[in-house]
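Usage

Read records sequentially. Each one opens with the input sequence:
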Amino acid sequence: MALIWGTNYAIVKHAFREMDPQAFNAIRLIVASSVFVVIMLVARRTGRGVHVGASQPGVFYTPHAMTRRELLALAALGIVGQSLYQYLFIAGLARTSIANSAVIAAAAPVMIAVVNGVAGEEHLGPAHWLGAALSLLGIYIVVGPGVKIGGSSVRGDLLMLGAMGCWSAYTLGARPLMTRHSPVAVTGISMAFGALFYVPAVASHLAGLHWNAVSTMTWVALVYSATCSLSLSYTIWYAAVREIGSARTSVYSNLVPVFAMATAIIFVGEPVSGRKIAGAAAVLIGVALTRVGTLNPAPD
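and closes with the structure output:
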């Protein structure tokens, strides 16, 4: 999962050379949503899907029907956590470097943990607050020095920060729904709702796309990003959460910036300075501290 998400930055960035970023993402969301719908239909038809109990949701399948209130909640989550998040993420990635994007994204677990602490879901110890501060320092080391107000890069960094805020809200908002429904169902349905809002919003980008100018490799990159980065990686993530818990699973996401920077150097030729490496290290250490500095965490 970490390898797929890490390499996805370079793959998507390379595809932007031939496709408008928002058009690329609209098609990607349609493909990923379709994959999730097929998986849910197959799971519903067969009644299988990594069960944890006869009446408890598995990873792919849940025995419970969606209520009207839950569908409305999923629609809201789709707008914030899929439509708005995807728009900001893609717009940010198109305007800033892969290294900056990956490092900022690595701070999302800190945002989630701090919100959980403020809401009383987790008790935050001194090490946790130190980790949060260290992660913020790491982001500043990467994107702060030498910033020119109004520059394309800083706009991209701010868009990426906004995307991580949406992702954090989505993660926290989706958690209650997963007590009754499978993670794949919650993700798939919210993604489908998100696509319904997202695609019309970027219709002008799709209309302006020169379809004949898109190479086969870019189409392969799009399908890979949709099926692997969205569909497969989400499934791996939630399967791991069910098996080893969210705290241990989140540790593996700390590898994403490492893979992202490595692939940026190899495939995109993006320079990664010592300052960015130091900033990334600060973010990762900070994330680790927020995990070990959390006392009495809520049950997974």
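Summary fields computed downstream for this record:
- The chain has one domain: 2-295.
- Residues 2-295 form one domain.
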